[in-house]
From TrEMBL:
Chain residue ranges for the region called Disordered: 1-27
Compositionally biased tracts (Basic and acidic residues): 10-27
The protein, known as: DUF6328 family protein
Pfam family, one: DUF6328
Length: 175
């Protein structure tokens, strides 16, 4: 059997680790929780700030478009927070049922959805803020550039690195 391969596996273990499926699920779950802690903190802080904006005196003076944008931003923030907190609920419901790999897979999807919603929340909050600080056109351009930057950093660069390094870790060392 190849190093790192499990019985019944047809492909070598990509992690280079010799771990059981349960150990791998435990490791992936721990990694996922660390990732969620970072994203969830930002999501909760932003959402908490957004909730207070409606109670500020200047809010009543906003144009209807900006009020609607605020509502969309708050809803996106609530959805992002809910998606990023959902793995906790999954863990409670799945605990003790020997479904850790399924838990990790479902939670990873929810975190990915939460990150998309968080990016959209940040983008719409930025648009709202910049519409008050600059012109509507400048706000749209700046927000567009920031959202493209998010897409590059959060999606394109990781995919580029995956494609660039695909297969390198699976090759046995020379000699």
């Amino acid at each position: 059997m190849a190093p790192g391969a499990q019985r019944g596996d047809t492909a070598p273990d990509r992690t280079g680790r010799q771990e059981s499926p349960e150990e791998r699920a435990d490791r992936r779950w721990s990694d996922l929780l660390q990732e969620v802690r970072v994203a969830q903190t930002g999501s909760q802080v932003l959402f908490g700030f957004l909730l207070s904006v409606v109670f500020m005196p200047r809010f009543a003076q906003l144009e209807q478009f900006d009020r609607n944008l605020y509502v969309v931003t708050v809803v996106l923030g609530a959805l992002a927070t809910g998606s990023l907190a959902a793995p906790v609920s999954y863990h409670r419901l799945f605990a003790g049922r020997r479904l850790k790999p399924q838990l990790v897979q479902a939670a990873a999807r929810l975190v990915a959805i939460g990150l998309v919603l968080l990016a959209l929340t940040i983008g719409s909050a930025l648009l709202l803020l910049l519409r008050e600080a600059t012109s509507a056109a400048a706000a749209a351009w700046i927000t567009g550039v920031v959202m493209v930057y998010f897409g590059v950093c959060w999606l394109l660069l990781p995919v580029f690195h995956l494609l660039r390094h695909n297969g390198r870790e699976r090759r046995p060392p020379p000699g």
